[in-house]
Amino acid sequence: MMNASVDDAHFSADWLARRECLDARSRSRCITGLAADWLAARPGVHRLVDLGAGSGSNLRFLAPRLPGPQRWRLVDHDGELLARARRTRQLDAHGERVAVSLERRNLAPVDDALLDDADLVVASALCDLVSRSWAEGLVDGCAARGQGLLITLTVDGDWAFLDASGERVDSDEDIAVRALVQAHQRRDKGLGPALGGQAPAVLAERLEAAGYRVTSVYSPWFVPRGERATLAVAEALVAGWYAAALEQSPPEGIWLARWHAGRRAQLAAGELGLTVGHRDLFATPGTGATA
Ligand SMILES: C[S@@+](CC[C@H](N)C(=O)[O-])C[C@H]1O[C@@H](n2cnc3c(N)ncnc32)[C@H](O)[C@@H]1O
Asked: Could you tell me if the CB of 107 is within 6 A of ligand 1?
């Protein structure tokens, strides 16, 4: 299961561990490189705050690709996930130990305690869960502090099954399920009505309005058909879509269950793969920012 309940913002450690390899291979190297160059041009210790850090996946990916010295603050409301993150011993791109502190708290409000003491604000697989007002508060808070933002693996609401030639399948039922899932993604996940697939565009727009230079790159997950290593993630995803669609429209349960069983069997048989749309974004304060 992705979540304990499809409506809350609690994620199982098992799900986050399973998706970590897919995340790592999907993330834009160009965006990571821009962040590394931006930090390298700044003197002193590089201070990062990771919002919705979970079990530390973002730290494990970024730390060895960014220059040191680095000091990270990992923020999440889930103490169990943070306890897992605590076990991470990470080196920076120069082979030096990265300093890490953990903070268990809610991401709201976006206040001084959340944002102060950071040069670069990072978040991965978070921003579809947040509301427009939370995202605006984040951008305004970062702009007021002259901070950079590296917001990765934000879903754009699109997903599809892929056939043997890598083409989208998009049956009528897939399209109907996708619409239900997209509606479900916009439910309140604890930070107000969620942006869901609108998150990448809303963030980029608000950042540009605040004077940021924004680079946004497509970073989709690709699960090729028959790939054994990622089959469990694909199956969990499809189960999550089914649960979300069912919660969104209980009267449609019969055909949704048939759809789920059919697609799951086709994934397991290696007949279909799938893709999930994400975007990675890097933003640096420009003329509009007040440092
Ligand atoms: C999809 S997970 C991503 C975790 C991690 N960034 C990664 O890439 O594996 C979203 C994370 O945001 C955290 N989260 C969601 N809503 C939150 C809130 N209101 N306050 C604090 N953390 C929150 C969850 O506990 C979870 O760890």
From this structure: yes
| pLDDT of the chain, 291 residues: tens digit per residue | 344 334 467 899 999 999 999 999 999 999 999 999 999 999 999 999 999 999 999 999 999 999 999 999 999 999 999 999 998 889 999 999 999 999 999 999 999 999 999 999 999 999 999 999 999 999 999 999 999 999 999 999 999 999 999 999 999 999 999 999 999 999 999 999 999 999 999 999 999 999 999 999 999 999 999 999 999 999 999 999 999 999 999 999 999 999 999 999 999 999 999 999 999 999 999 854 333
Token pair, residue 55, equals 């079990």
Rounded to the nearest whole angstrom, what is the distance from the C-alpha of residue 271 to the centroid of ligand 1?
A: 33
Cα–Cα–Cα angle for 155, 16, 126, rounded to 5 degrees: 35
Q: Is the CB of residue 154 below 6 angstroms from any atom belonging to ligand 1?
A: no
- First-to-last C-alpha distance (Å) of the chain: 43
DSSP string covering 51-66: ET-TTTHHHHHHGGGS
CA 155 – ligand 1 centroid, Å: 14
Is 54 a pocket residue for ligand 1 (Cβ < 6 Å)? Answer: yes
Q: Is 290 in the pocket of ligand 1 (CB under 6 A)?
A: no
Is 52 a pocket residue for ligand 1 (Cβ < 6 Å)? yes
pTM value surpassing 0.90:
yes
Q: What is the rounded CA–CA span in Å between residue 114 and residue 106?
A: 9
